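Prompt: Have a read of the protein record below and flag anything odd:
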Amino acid sequence: MAPRISALVPSYNHAPYVGDAVESVLAQVGLPPGALEVVIVDDGSTDGSPEVLRRFADDPRVRLELRDNRGISPTFQRLLELAEGEFVAYCCSDDRWHPEHLAPALRALEEAPDAAVCFGRARVVDGQGREHADSIFSPLRDPEHPLASLLRDGNSLCFVAAVFRRELALDAGGFDFGLRVLQDYDLWLKLVARGRALFRADPSVDFRWDGNNASGPAASLRKREDLIRVLERALKTSELLSTDPELRSSVTARVRRSHLRVARRVGDRAKRREHLKQARALGASWWKTVF
């Protein structure tokens, strides 16, 4: 009998945290017997994470795959393809779930067959699990229109706090291997275009922000390049953007600004010229492109 929900754990060089992450997944309460499977893929860790993960291999709920490093998007996709549950949720190897993370979301999705995803809330914690005063996540400004809100404002939702339908994600193409930072944002756009979004008000996961997360100029540049890729695809394919001129104008402006910001930061001159060209094609005035 197939499980109802698959907990997916992508692991990479988080030996101090990954055991806690897996334990938090296995400690979920309120689920029917046999409803949960746990799928773990370690993406070529070199810090002892595989040894930590092998401690869980005898649990009948757990499937573990150790492999050479292939990157974050391929790992997310591999987990999605290995999963057998109708519903899936990710717990990254430095994060943790609260005991009642899955059960309420599963019930909500089962009661709303037209819903694609249930978004939860996250506490942001440091390396010792202490809550940060300021969160990097926030509710959507317009939850009644989640696709428009995501397109206009960007992503403020926590990846490891979401539960969604596996087949919808696979039908939408899953994770884009060309993205290095905004894999979750791209997936949310695909899912909320295909089904309703549900929201929980209570935090049900801990997202770890310990100073080792990707940040700084290089990460900022990658994020801008990813944003251009995601939004340009939306401008070509989104039915909503084809019927809402005001929203389309707003998204076009986001792409134009992103081209200009990348052009100002990128070191490669050919790439700089190309981004300036694209910005001008989207209506950037000549003086805005002067350095």
